[in-house]
Amino acid sequence: MDLWQYEKELYQQGITYIGGVDEVGRGPLIGPVVTACVVLPKDFVLEGLTDSKKLTERKREKFYPYILEHAIAYGIGMVQPEEIDRINIYEATKVAMKMAIEEVQKQIPLEHVLIDAMPLELDIPSTSIIKGDAKSISIAAASVVAKVTRDHMMIELDKKYPEYGYKEHKGYPTKKHLEAIQKYGLIDGYRKSYGPVKELLEKE
Question: Which of 37, 84, 133, 178 could cross-link with 19 by S-S, CB 3.0 to 4.6 Å?
Answer without folding.
Answer: 37
